[in-house]
Amino acid sequence: MVFYAFFFFIVGERLVELAIAKRNERVLKAMGAKEFGARHYPWIVAMHALFFVSFWIEATLKGGQLSPWWPFLFSFFAAVQGLRIWTLWSLGRLWNTKILVLPNAHVVVKGPYRWLRHPNYLIVILEMILIPLLFEAYWTALIFSVLNAFLLSIRISTEEQALSAMTNYKHKFRDRPRFFPFRPVK
To answer: Which residues cross the membrane (predicted)?
Structure first.
């Protein structure tokens, strides 16, 4: 029962986020935003969809039982959800699942962006590990963490190039680490 409630919560959360992203996309494109990374975006969508399928299958085959480490894992997951809300709130209408860049815009430097260039991607990285580990879906955690790392390497490069070319990103974020605060930048 806990597994199903948790699964439908995270799927519902993603559906709400997709609706917000679609609304934000319309607003940003009406303001003149340009889209980047359209070729890799379907692969990201497919990977996330398959992540949920894999998680469902692996966890239910194991009886949908919580990990013995669930209190720690769930506490960490809840903290990550707090970071997710803070990140989305900080970006406001600029948040999207696609790479949409407003020409000559000033990048957001509030919220978690004061310390990190990509808090949203950090959240995704952590969720790809935490969600499956909560229900001992180890293969899902491993396989999709590797796939996610590969796709994020393409996406982050594309996003940083677009932001550097069209906004004040390079000036504002040159000294901020990508994912881990308080780590020196090379």
So the answer is: 40-57, 69-89, 121-147
